[in-house]
Automatic annotation (TrEMBL):
Keywords: Membrane, Transmembrane, Transmembrane helix. This is Uncharacterized protein. It comes from the Bacteria. The chain crosses the membrane at residues 7-25, 45-63, 70-90, 102-125.
Length: 134
């Protein structure tokens, strides 16, 4: 299986597992009622994170194809843009609750997908060169 399909499958797995665990955690803690007080949803946050990470992974794979030596610089630029986009996404919901419900949920989602982005960049930067011995 090529690396594009592996990274896509891994993103799908991270999204589904993260959403499932996050949903179960909120249900067990009895915090689902807070979602009704805002226009955000947990699924919307995961969709935003998935699309943002898919975009970052695409740019990293393009950089790996076109200019292997600059994957780390592209990674830093993509993460900066992703952080700004994330702030713009959540900006209207900041300080909405006293207990920082929305901020903490979004921060959890952001870090889940940040770990995925770091893993993709790590695997692309640390590719082993396979040498055929004679």
């Amino acid at each position: 299986m090529n690396k594009y399909a592996r990274f896509g499958g891994l993103l799908f797995l991270v999204t589904v597992l993260g959403f499932g665990i996050h949903t179960l955690l909120l249900q067990n803690l009895g915090l689902n009622a807070y979602w009704k007080q805002t226009h955000y949803t947990l699924m919307g946050m995961y969709a935003f994170g998935c699309i943002a990470s898919l975009t970052v992974a695409t740019f990293l794979l393009l950089a790996d194809f076109a200019m292997k030596n600059y994957v780390s610089i592209v990674f830093l630029g993509c993460i900066l843009i992703k952080a700004v986009a994330s702030y713009l996404f959540i900006q209207s919901g900041l300080n909405l609750f006293e207990n920082d419900f929305l901020e903490l949920n979004f921060l959890g989602v952001f870090f889940i997908f940040l770990m995925y982005d770091i893993l993709v960049a790590y695997r692309l930067v640390n590719q082993e060169v396979k040498v055929v011995e004679k």
